[in-house]
Design goal:
By secondary structure, the chain is an alpha+beta fold. It is about 25% helix and about 35% strand. The chain has a 6-stranded mixed β-sheet, sandwiched between helices. The protein is globular, with a radius of gyration of 16 Å. The structure holds coenzyme A. Coenzyme A binds next to β3, α3 and α4.
Length: about 160
């Protein structure tokens, strides 16, 4: 009898696998499957995955460590979501995935990158290391599921 063919895990499943683990529920930052599915249908949306060994491709059963999702308009691109699953943090995968995002944007002809984050998010350490600089501050911009207001910092990187 032939061996069972493993069911393919598509990229939306991989993104959701990380999404469900990576974003702390108290901030309400995670997108649901439908929001991601809809975003992926748009022609100016781009995403990337990183495997637990830092690569871009996945062997059968290999875990997804992280992903990014972005959207571009003309020669500007906004990083909408960026996450590494908790089991794979603090081993450089965030650096590797962000470097890949930036290099691909550059080779796609992007001139400026943007992102917005909670002002206290330690992700700021990572973004700063890759040259992002604060360009704006929005007091109380985010509202958590508990009704708390948190400030947002807009960051940009000129390529
Ligand atoms: C932010 C995030 C992507 C970092 O991923 P990671 O794989 O742990 O990042 P790396 O291991 O490449 O570390 C990057 C740098 O940030 C630092 N860092 C990462 N998380 C940190 C934390 N919680 N506290 C302090 N420093 C932290 C690392 O020490 C490292 O600094 P170094 O280069 O000076 O050593 C990950 O914590 C995450 O997914 N967070 C939840 C989702 C999120 O908030 N995304 C950003 C939305 S704007």
């Amino acid at each position: 009898m032939p061996a069972p063919v493993p069911s393919p895990v598509d990229d939306l499943d991989r993104i959701m696998e990380v999404m469900e683990r990576a974003f702390a529920p108290e901030y309400g930052e995670a997108w649901n499957r439908r929001q991601i599915g809809d975003a992926l249908l748009l022609p100016n949306t781009r995403y990337g995955l990183i495997a637990d060994d830092g690569g871009e491709s996945f062997a059968d059963g290999q875990a997804t460590a992280g992903f990014f999702l972005s959207r571009s308009i003309l020669d500007e691109e906004e990083l909408l979501l960026f996450a590494i699953s908790p089991d794979f943090r603090l081993r450089g995968l965030g650096h590797a995935l962000l470097s890949r995002f930036i290099e691909q944007a550059r080779s796609n002809g992007m001139k400026r990158l943007f992102l917005e984050m909670r002002s206290e998010n330690p992700a700021g350490i990572l973004y700063a290391a890759h040259g992002f600089r604060a360009v704006g501050h929005r007091a109380g911009y985010y509202r958590t599921p508990d009704g708390l207001r948190l400030d947002a910092v807009s960051q940009a990187l000129d390529l």
